[in-house]
């Protein structure tokens, strides 16, 4: 650590009384984002962090070079068919963002995607390539750039896209004529980043947000008119709900959905019966969650409904395409507590069900014929841990299923699954340059036991030669919120950790969705503590069973809250903690309904302002409120100034309180703030490599591998 002392934020006490409890806060003044004193403090923190990690500079440079040397920088993705074209993305050596492109379909009967004639590393353009968007040109002059939606009109003549050049997730939508390359005068500002064409290709549907960053309005914009004249399609006034809009794969329906954490309501516009207008399929009922897909089953147009009316892990039913009560739905797949049904995608000849069981994702196929369901089977994969899901299936009438597959040791892979032959064709496996060999790594599914007896799964990868020598330094990652499953995935950057002899593990803790809806319910609201004790149990298991010789913990966003809690409650277990965009001042946030996303989060965390029991429960674990005098492991907190999901002020306050409260006032706590980024961090790929190399170097140092 530097000889000079770290920044110390001045204490300026505010006091609030809630439910008769006094709550003191000396650092809330840091919320003033535009205050020069606040910005100066963040810059001082960045300078302190840079000095404290200066000795890792050569290692950071080495890791960046390792990532670069393993990456095929000039490349193109597997083309996806839509209408009369194949669409794909390209990357180029030396460029941050790349381009989106298309080529015409040469033979409508051939569903094999085109490939370059030359498969050398420079990956030349496909014959007849049309560049739709040059992302580097769009990003020019901006410190941050993010592409939101990018979608062609039904006749494939127009392109609409959305960009964010600040990081606050407020997007501008623009439109281009693909025949001439000319940009239309239409500009839609302040959108949420999604955009949907109407079936005629003459108008766009989009979503805007309210002051608390809740998607609350759906609009219809007619091309060639001013945004001020746009039609308000739906205004969601219930602050628990957010809205979205889309078009079915069949192109027959425009759908508007209002969704809370527990309840849904869908409105439907039938393109073939526009005179009916937008109709509510089933009015919202508390705790009834459902979604709609359009399919043709047994020769009839039907809605396929994924719903929880029969049980928490969801079932599948069908109904006519008119508004239909629950009692009239026809069962298709019954509720099974051992299988969580997550989604159903409908195609002309089959349905694909995304589901999970045993903690693993799976794809189930229902083949349709003239009478109904002719076949029902699961696409098989023979690995201990893996992730599989649909990828880029845009066409309704297709004989193949495009899917993505990966594991902790196998790079992201794209397959076509032929329904007639039930065979998988590998179209592409993300190349890893150099001497990479997936067989040099071993993957495992381990099980830890939580204090209440629950068995918690862990996914782990390690080099075989490192494991043969005994326990290894280990990075343990966790999240555990919003029913989000942290499924196994491959990372080129992670090889810089593994090839130095470390292991990487994911703790699939409660609050996530890996083991069904019960797994989620047992890790939210007044059961949230299970998330934290599960993670600690996973760390203890790795040490006790001889897997880990040392441990660093990492988590981001809601996983950053997890990091803050374990730092307070199990500091001796970890040799270091990385908290990315961490939700560590969650009690303050949940007490302020004007802040982004607070009201929509009540179903996840509870409402501490309205309920004293919820207040006391959150107060008992909230990281910022429970900082104590005593030893902490070294902590690296990372945030972004323009983050609208977890405001920079949360980690800024947390780090300041850690410094002020610890017994020696100088714990090894670092704060790094990206001054031109949002929740996802920096935007360009080379920037992202450097950002991850910074974090990995710190982790390797804490694991004794620097």
Give structural notes.
Helix 2 (57-70) packs across helix 13. The mean pLDDT is 95. The strands form eight sheets. An eight-stranded mixed sheet has the order 31-32-34-33-35-36-37-38, sandwiched between helices. Strands 8-9-10-11-12-13-14 form a seven-stranded antiparallel sheet, with no helix packed on it. Helices cover 18% and strands 35% of the residues. The protein is of the alpha+beta class.
Strand order of the largest sheet: 31-32-34-33-35-36-37-38
Overall mean pLDDT score?
95
Instruction: Give the CA-CA distance, first to last residue.
Output: 16 Å
Report the count of strand segments.
Answer: 38
Q: How is the biggest beta sheet arranged?
A: 8 strands, mixed
Number of helices: 13
Short overview:
The protein has 706 residues and is α+β, with helices and mostly antiparallel strands. Helices cover 18% and strands 35% of the residues.
Task: Give the key terms.
706 residues, 8-stranded mixed beta sheet, alpha+beta, 7-stranded antiparallel beta sheet, globular, 35% strand, 13 helices
Topology, pairings included?
Elements: E1 14-18, E2 21-25, H1 36-52, H2 57-70, E3 75-76, E4 80-82, E5 85-91, E6 99-104, E7 130-134, H3 135-139, E8 146-152, E9 158-164, E10 171-177, E11 183-197, E12 203-209, E13 215-222, E14 231-235, E15 242-247, E16 253-259, E17 264-270, E18 279-282, E19 290-297, E20 300-307, E21 315-319, E22 330-333, E23 340-346, E24 350-357, E25 360-368, E26 373-378, E27 387-390, E28 400-406, E29 413-418, E30 423-429, E31 441-449, E32 455-463, H4 464-467, E33 472-478, H5 495-498, E34 503-507, H6 517-521, H7 529-544, E35 548-556, H8 558-569, E36 576-580, H9 586-590, H10 602-605, H11 612-621, E37 635-640, H12 649-661, E38 669-674, H13 685-702
Parallel strand pairs: 33-34, 33-35, 35-36, 36-37, 37-38
Antiparallel strand pairs: 1-2, 3-5, 4-5, 5-6, 6-7, 8-9, 9-10, 10-11, 11-12, 12-13, 13-14, 15-16, 16-17, 17-18, 19-20, 20-21, 21-22, 23-24, 24-25, 25-26, 27-28, 28-29, 29-30, 31-32, 32-34
Helix pairs in contact: 2-13
């Amino acid at each position: 650590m530097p000889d000079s002392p770290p920044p110390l934020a001045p204490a300026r006490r505010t006091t609030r009384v809630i439910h008769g409890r006094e709550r003191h806060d000396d650092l809330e003044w840091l919320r003033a984002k535009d205050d020069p004193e606040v910005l100066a403090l963040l810059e001082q923190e960045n300078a302190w962090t840079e000095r404290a990690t200066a000795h890792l500079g050569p290692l950071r440079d080495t890791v960046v070079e390792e990532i670069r040397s393993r990456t095929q920088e000039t490349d193109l993705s597997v083309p996806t068919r839509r209408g009369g074209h194949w669409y794909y993305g390209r990357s180029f050596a030396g460029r941050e963002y790349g381009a989106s492109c298309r080529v015409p379909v040469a033979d409508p009967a051939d569903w094999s995607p085109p490939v370059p004639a030359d498969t050398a590393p420079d990956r030349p353009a496909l014959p007849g390539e049309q560049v739709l968007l040059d992302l580097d040109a769009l990003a020019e002059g901006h410190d941050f750039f993010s592409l939101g939606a990018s979608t062609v009109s039904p006749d494939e003549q127009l392109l609409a896209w959305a960009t964010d050049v600040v990081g606050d997730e407020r997007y501008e939508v623009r439109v281009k004529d693909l025949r001439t390359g000319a940009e239309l005068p239409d500009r839609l500002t302040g959108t949420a980043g999604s955009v949907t064409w109407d079936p005629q290709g003459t108008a766009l549907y989009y979503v805007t947000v309210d002051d608390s960053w809740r998607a609350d309005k759906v609009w219809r914009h007619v091309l060639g008119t001013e945004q001020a004249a746009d039609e308000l399609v739906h205004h969601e006034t219930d602050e628990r709900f957010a809205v979205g809009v889309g078009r079915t794969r069949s192109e027959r329906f425009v759908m508007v959905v209002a969704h809370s954490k527990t309840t849904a309501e869908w409105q439907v516009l039938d393109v073939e019966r526009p005179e009916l207008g937008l109709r509510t399929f089933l009015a919202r009922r508390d705790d009834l969650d459902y979604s709609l897909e359009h399919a043709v089953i047994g020769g009839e147009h039907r809605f396929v409904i994924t719903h929880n009316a029969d049980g928490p892990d969801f079932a599948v039913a069908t109904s006519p395409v008119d508004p239909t009560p629950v009692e009239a739905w026809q069962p298709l797949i019954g509720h099974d507590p051992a299988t969580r049904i997550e989604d159903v995608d409908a195609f002309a000849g089959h349905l694909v069900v995304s589901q999970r069981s045993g903690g693993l994702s799976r794809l189930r196929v229902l083949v349709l014929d003239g009478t109904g369901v002719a076949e029902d089977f699961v696409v098989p994969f023979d690995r201990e841990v893996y992730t599989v899901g649909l990828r880029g299936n845009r066409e309704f009438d297709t004989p193949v299923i495009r899917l993505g597959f990966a594991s902790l040791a196998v790079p992201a892979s794209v397959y076509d699954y032929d329904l007639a032959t039930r065979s998988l064709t590998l179209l592409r496996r993300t190349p890893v340059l150099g001497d990479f060999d997936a067989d040099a790594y071993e993957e495992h599914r381990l099980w830890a036991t939580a204090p209440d007896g629950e068995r918690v799964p862990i996914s782990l990868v390690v080099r075989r030669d490192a494991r043969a020598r005994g326990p290894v330094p280990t990075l343990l990652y966790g999240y555990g919120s919003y029913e989000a499953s942290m499924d196994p995935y491959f990372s080129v950057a992670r090889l810089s950790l593994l090839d130095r002899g470390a292991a990487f593990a994911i703790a699939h803790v409660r609050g996530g969705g890996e083991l069904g809806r019960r797994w989620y319910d047992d890790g939210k609201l007044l059961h949230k503590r299970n998330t934290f004790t599960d993670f600690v149990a996973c760390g203890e298991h790795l040490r006790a069973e001889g897997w880990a010789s040392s441990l660093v913990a990492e988590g981001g966003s809601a996983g950053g809250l997890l990091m803050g809690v374990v730092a307070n409650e199990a500091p001796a277990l970890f040799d270091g903690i990385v908290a990315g965009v961490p939700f560590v001042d969650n009690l303050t946030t949940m007490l302020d309904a004007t802040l982004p996303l607070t009201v929509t989060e009540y179903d996840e965390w509870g409402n501490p302002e309205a309920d004293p029991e919820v207040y006391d429960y959150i107060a008992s674990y909230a990281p910022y409120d429970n900082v104590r005098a005593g030893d902490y492991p070294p902590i690296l907190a990372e945030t972004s100034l323009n983050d609208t999901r977890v405001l920079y002020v949360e980690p800024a306050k947390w780090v300041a309180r850690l410094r002020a409260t610890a017994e020696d006032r100088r714990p090894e706590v670092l704060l790094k703030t990206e001054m031109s980024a949002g929740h996802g961090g920096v935007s360009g790929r080379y920037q992202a490599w450097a950002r991850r190399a910074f974090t990995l170097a710190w982790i390797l140092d804490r694991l004794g591998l620097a």
